[in-house]
């Protein structure tokens, strides 16, 4: 049976896994879960993932959740030597560092601005949270000084891919909260990564377009 990825394209976490799978060329079955219809809470899916979230990767009897863990697993298992996840221990640590940064700092800062508006009924933009997001983005912008890739590696890694899914999601809210032109190194890095991901349109852009409509519908911004 082919590997299965339970996912929804709007989710940045699913998009990063899709980009990783496409880059290593791993065939898989994309199992679309309509999160807005609550399909993640069906008894069948809860048996697979009681945490009812996506992405969820199923490979025979092995089930893996958490997008960044999935991306690392996919790169290590199916990538060519060192592709997307370096072999050197210190480089691996640097990649892991930026994966944690993506989850715990960058995405978190964005979610604190966007989440209450989209899901919590909040009407006003919280400017303190916007300030915090701008600080994180300014820090992020410095990460490309060494090599042009987020973890200072010679080539693109899963840290770039996961951060790319987050950053391009922030980009689509442009002008509502932040001005992306304030982060020129990051903007340049996005274009570099896009060129390196042959299936970028299908694996990231398509979901971003859905997210954009959702964002406008929910926030009016
Ligand atoms: N930290 C997780 C976050 C996963 C997550 O929050 N997924 C959302 C979609 S963006 C989800 O499945 N929500 C449905 C639910 O929790 O019921 C990851 O990186 O995979």
Automatic annotation (TrEMBL):
Residues 88-214 form the GST C-terminal domain. GO terms for molecular function: glutathione transferase activity. Pfam families: GST_C, GST_N. InterPro entries: Glutathione-S-Trfase_C-like, Glutathione-S-Trfase_C_sf, Glutathione_S-Trfase, Glutathione_S-Trfase_N, GST_C, Thioredoxin-like_sf. Residues 1-82 form the GST N-terminal domain. Homodimer. GO terms for biological process: glutathione metabolic process. It comes from the Eukaryota. Belongs to the GST superfamily. This is Uncharacterized protein. Gene3D superfamilies: 1.20.1050.10, Glutaredoxin.
């Amino acid at each position: 049976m082919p590997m299965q990825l339970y996912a929804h394209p709007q989710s940045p976490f699913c998009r990063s896994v899709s980009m990783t799978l496409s880059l290593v060329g791993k065939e898989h079955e994309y199992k679309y879960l309509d999160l807005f219809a609550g399909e993640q809470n069906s008894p069948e899916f809860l048996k697979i993932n009681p945490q009812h979230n996506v992405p969820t990767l199923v490979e025979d009897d092995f089930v893996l959740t958490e997008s960044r863990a999935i991306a690392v697993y996919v790169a290590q298992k199916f990538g060519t030597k060192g592709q997307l996840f370096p072999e050197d221990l210190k480089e691996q640590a640097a990649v892991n560092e930026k994966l944690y940064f993506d989850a715990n700092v960058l995405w978190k800062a964005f979610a604190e601005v966007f989440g209450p508006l989209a899901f919590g009924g909040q009407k006003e933009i919280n400017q303190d949270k916007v300030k915090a997001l701008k600080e994180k983005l300014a820090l992020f912008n410095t990460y490309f000084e060494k090599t042009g890739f987020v973890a200072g590696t010679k080539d693109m890694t899963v840290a770039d891919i996961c951060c790319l899914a987050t950053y391009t999601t922030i980009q689509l809210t442009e002008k509502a909260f932040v001005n992306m032109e304030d982060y020129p190194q990051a903007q340049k890095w996005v274009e570099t990564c896009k060129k390196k991901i042959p299936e970028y349109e299908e694996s990231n852009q398509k979901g971003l377009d859905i997210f954009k409509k959702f964002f406008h519908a929910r926030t009016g911004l």
